[in-house]
């Protein structure tokens, strides 16, 4: 900004680096003045200070120049002329006289009346108000002749990179010079151009006006510059609390105080249904679960019992959602008073309550045997479909991809068939003379396609999701960066070199050997020759194995490891001890050995 009137010569000198010369009316002529190299204060400036130079005579102020310029009315419309000393000429646009320095201050001169005007607020510059502001702020009339250093930075002045002498101010060998930060009052001649060293620049520096404006603008642009991906299906949950919606289908923990033991009782309910598959005829199980394509496999149980623990999770989420909505007291589709009875039993007995199993069956059977018709407002009225939608809802408001939805639907369908199987056997228990196929056909509308019941709706969604999953081309996980030797790639953004893979397998092999020799064999030298093993691959005799083949005598001693452990005193003492004529096994060491064996198997399967 402008300085006081007494220091207006500073502005003129910043404009043209020299004193203002006399010029004819109607023009401004400013000349350049050469000056010698500047002196720089150093850490030893207090020992030998430079001689104080005489300041140049004060120059006329900028306002006085403009006022003298405006007295010549005959040449008012002409542009101010410049001398041949290198000054910047003024320009005339839109009735205003422009100058490079005045433009940097957002100031211009009216071409007709020759008064100073502000280009931002578009009003005349007030000299009186300027002097009052300068007086109120106690602006110094003269610049300081000398500022010693090193010192903290002087705010408002630019910091330059310089060299400081660590010995004295003027004379030193080059190795004694070190880089530093310096400042000066302004460029020009005299003491005001002397440099001084500043310290702690980062701690004491303040952002300039330009930097503050840039930071403020960038902060305003942050919402616009952010890469926001609005999901295409986000309108389904627009204006809703996503976190609250996801919490409706959150799986309750075993020690959950709101719905205690729900997962355990649901697991017990389906554990009772699994044995019914062995007591049901193939004709009824064939009707119970519809087949697609060339497959005609009847409804059957899983190979592993642990699989069922994963299949019941969507049903647990469904019951938890219904109980939570019922507890709030708000009307919703699927509301049932038996849900509160189930909650009461769980709160009293927890996971040990067998009284909860009939309530679970009644609640699920009622929900899955109602013809849920769609509404005009596109609300999902079927509780199972609503639960499916919430299970596939992400925290960002989008939904899972189709290939991530098919598994949830398959789990729902399997559990629904088990519930219908239980209902069939309940009818058989009530009427032992009846046929299970008759009861199956009586309930067939609930588990066939092209109806308004839940199973049909899920089956239709399964077809759609499978079709989308097969037809949608996914983006590649691997991008080759080396298209000549094919030795490097990007896997999901991470760079991978084949040389690193070789190191991985080398380290895995070293770890395998270590676990085998130290963790499994316990340091014993036990070896089986396996270079040549005979195996008849077409022999389908019951009990045949390459381990029992007579051509492999080295594999007949299958008790070598056990004998070695029991016969070696140190190894036997590691795993067991003898007390009162019996062997007492050390369970912790046995578990550690089994853990090592499991780690060995996992590395072999890699």
Question: Would you kindly provide a written description of the structure presented here, covering whatever features stand out?
Answer:
- It is a single chain.
- A hairpin with a 7-residue loop joins strand 1 and strand 2 (29-30).
- Residues 1-87 and 169-174 have low confidence and may be disordered.
- By secondary structure, this protein is an alpha+beta fold.
- The strands form 5 sheets. Strands 3-4-5-6-7 form a 5-stranded antiparallel beta sheet. Strands 8-11-10-9 form a 4-stranded mixed beta sheet, with no helix packed on it.
- The chain has 21 helices and 16 strands.
- Helices cover 40% and strands 9% of the residues.
Main attributes?
five-stranded antiparallel sheet, 606 residues, single chain, 16 strands, alpha+beta, extended, 40% helix, disordered N terminus
SSE topology sketch:
Elements: H1 8-16, E1 20-21, E2 29-30, H2 62-70, E3 91-93, E4 96-98, H3 100-104, E5 107-110, E6 116-118, E7 123-124, H4 127-136, E8 151-152, E9 160-165, E10 177-183, E11 196-199, H5 201-204, H6 209-225, H7 242-248, H8 262-273, H9 282-288, H10 306-311, H11 313-328, H12 337-349, H13 356-367, H14 383-391, H15 406-430, H16 436-442, H17 454-471, E12 478-480, E13 488-491, E14 494-497, H18 498-520, H19 560-567, H20 569-575, E15 576-579, E16 582-585, H21 587-605
Parallel strand pairs: 8-11
Antiparallel strand pairs: 1-2, 3-4, 4-5, 5-6, 6-7, 9-10, 10-11, 12-13, 13-14, 15-16
